[in-house]
Amino acid sequence: MHYPYQITSYEQYKAQYAESIANPEGFWANVAEHFTWQKKWDRVLEWNFEEPKVEWFGGGKINVTENCLDRHLATQPDVPAIIWEPNDPELHHRVLTYRELHHKVMQFSNVLKNNGVQKGDRICIYMGMIPELVIAVLACARIGAVHSVVFGGFSAQSIADRIQDAGAVMVITCDGAYRGNKTVPLKETIDDAMIGCPTVKRIIVVTHTRTPVSMIKGRDLWWEDEIKKVETHGNPYVAPEPMDAEDLLFILYTSGSTGKPKGVVHTTAGYLIWANYTFVNVFQYRPGQVHFCTADIGWITGHTYIVYGPLSAGATSLMFEGVPTWPDAGRFWDIVDKFKVNILYTAPTAIRSLMAFGQTPLMGKSLTSLEVLGTVGEPINEEAWHWYDEHIGKQKCPIVDTWWQTETSGTLISNLAGVTPSKPSFATLPMPGVLPALVDENGQEIEGNGTSGNLVIKQPWPGILRTTYGNHERMRQTYFSAYPQLYFTGDGCHRDENGFYRITGRVDDVLNVSGHRIGTAEVENAINMHSGVIESAVVGFPHDIKGQGIYAFVIFQGFHDDENLTRGDLLATVSRMIGPIAKPDKIQFVNGLPKTRSGKIMRRILRKIAEGELTSLGDTSTLLDPLVVDEIKEGRL
Ligand code: PRX
Which of 123, 250, 415, 637 could be bridged to 428 by S-S, CB 3.0 to 4.6 A? Predict the structure, then answer.
């Protein structure tokens, strides 16, 4: 069986693509017909990239959970919606059918309501990868509350920043989370965050690791106790809140060029349709298949391709609590065999790290259930692509290289599995509705094939971000001011002689470390918090496994003891301010930074030094003190 809007041949792709560009309103109205609306839209699209303003399906009323749960409850209640594999392979996995998931979402929707949550309230979710995370997210959507999921690796300070920015009234968390051989004390981190978060009135805590936690009277409640209360009242049905198509569905914070992460806002109808449409088409999902996206729901990939895309399509979505290398580097492959996974979607960094273990972890693994492989999050190098193709896909599974961003809500450029051509390390062709272009530094469009430039998108697709929470001007500045009338992605891109796109990486001050997006300015701000730091500059450098590593140049005053201990102090500072994911791989102490006469740090030079390109630093004559460059070169780590 195919979905009515599933593209099944290259010819059809070309025709659909052409139609989507010529007549976007008609095209997306046809797709939208296949969703459950409480009231049909009045206008398909209104937009201008000046303000910027984008509205899809204006006047329509729709609830995402009705599309993810209720409509499948009627037709396929016993199909597994979520299969959950725990961190520890010795423990039992869990399966939630559509009926069970619906039931649990009703329960937790009641809990939210009993605790005073209203439509439009913001709720921070800081949990490990357990089914309750999906239940919490969907319960928010059910009653019209706006979720802001914060990745479990962020520090108390980062959580507090996000809670304050969103004005969240509730936090949903766990006592702790398991990751490999570690237990992460999530509730404790939330307690630390709470010191600066007076808007939070309630914290609901799921029991998972039984890590001791301090439950504060009047504020903190156990998830299980709240569910029991609901059950004693018969767990009443919670009607799906009628949401305007453009009502907020969620906020997800992501890093940019400034020191402060921004809350990317996605709204209801456009997000749902984009998540679903891209899921069904990119992976060529067929009902009955098991889809395994290895991302964390704390990132956009998990939102779209573990939760909303698969569930809105009635698919079976596998979620995994643990890490690929524990108890051993065969963990993913065991999971694939155990659940007969058909679609595996992971990040190049995971592929490279597993590749480094060689063939042994693959011994005795069948992997024959696999039909489609996917990658996301960073450019995939050809070596990793071929390893994935040969050793995991056994050269019979198409690999989709999906390029997209937190801001785009789902894939914008990718081949469609087995339907459109693939090319190693190329994302290839745009999805219907996506009109990419390459521009030079002056914003001039670079036409023709066999060329490179900065990647922009010329018209809105249903899943484009609508604003940055609480600060619309920031959205305009960040995405629509570099090139007037164009959405600027921040990525560099090559278009080959056939018109296939290959994303080459960020051209702004955003790093991509193991697929995690981190702003250099954020890391600098964190380092600068240390009392001995005078100034710092952070750049990326190529890293075999992580894709990019973090290299910090630091001017430091007053070493207490040896430099390595001070390095440790700086790492601890970054962990506290952002989280362990942002810890620099290298810290070089310097006496000065290369600056122009106007005081601007010449990052280009530092980047070259970090990359080891010491002979081609370019013009250094405009520097205030060219000698610092020699010193930095000599001290390079
Ligand atoms: O640089 C691009 C890279 O990841 C950035 C977006 O990061 P984030 O918002 O965290 O979303 C990641 C998951 C979608 C992009 O600007 N990126 C993402 N996918 C690819 C990629 N780079 C190359 N190829 C990809 N397939």
Answer: 415
Q: How confident is the model at residue 256 (pLDDT cuts 50, 70, 90)?
A: confident
C-alpha count within 13 angstroms, C-beta hemisphere, residue 454: 18
How far, in Å, is the centroid of ligand 1 from the Cα of 77? 35
- 374-404 pLDDT, tens per residue? 999 999 999 999 999 999 999 999 999 999 9
From the CB of 425, is ligand 1 less than 6 Å away? no
Tokens read off for 169: 């009234």
Select 96-241's CATH number: 3.40.50.980, 3.30.470.10, 3.40.190.10, 3.30.479.10.
3.40.50.980
pLDDT of residue 615: 83
Return the higher-pLDDT residue of 596 and 127.
127
> pLDDT tens for residues 171-215?
999 999 999 999 999 999 999 999 989 999 999 999 999 999 999
299 alpha carbon to ligand 1 midpoint, in Å? Answer: 11
Residue 353 CB partners (closer than 8 Å, separation 6+)? 324, 325, 545
The ligand 1 atom at the shortest distance from the C-alpha of residue 301 is: 13
pLDDT in tens, 564-612: 999 999 999 999 999 999 999 999 999 999 998 888 899 999 999 999 9
Lookup: tokens for 239 = 């009607």
Does residue 248 have its Cβ closer than 6 Å to ligand 1? no
Q: Which residue has tokens 């209203």?
A: 118
| Residue of the CA atom closest to atom 23 of ligand 1 | 379
pLDDT of residue 599: 87
More confident residue, 431 or 622: 431
Q: Are 464 and 54 in contact (CB under 8 A)?
A: yes
Q: What is the CA radius of gyration of the chain?
A: 24
Give the CB-side neighbour count of residue 53, counting CA atoms within 13 A: 7
**Site of tokens 């010529």:** 22
Q: Whose CA is nearest to atom 5 of ligand 1?
A: 405
Q: How far is the CA of 232 from the centre of ligand 1 (A)?
A: 46
- The ligand 1 atom at the shortest distance from the C-alpha of residue 404 is 14
- Residue-range domain boundaries for the chain: 96-241, 510-634
Q: How confident is residue 621, by pLDDT bands cut at 50, 70 and 90?
A: confident
Q: CB pairs under 8 A, 24+ apart, for 353-356?
A: 353/324, 353/325, 353/545, 354/324, 354/325, 354/329, 355/383, 355/384, 355/387, 356/545
- For the chain, the farthest-separated pair of C-alpha atoms sits apart, in whole angstroms, at 76
For residue 407, how far is the Cα from the chain centroid?
A: 9
- Tell the CATH superfamily of the 510-634 domain: ANL, C-terminal domain (3.30.300.30)
Residue of 271, 503, 509, 514 with the most ligand 1 atoms within 8 Å of its CB, for mutation: 503
How many residues does the structure list for the chain?
637
Which residue among 517, 522, 581 is best mutated to probe the pocket of ligand 1, counting the most ligand atoms within 8 A of its Cβ?
A: 517
pTM over 0.90: yes
**DSSP-derived secondary structure for 102-144:** HHHHHHHHHHHHHTT--TT-EEEEE--SSHHHHHHHHHHHHHT
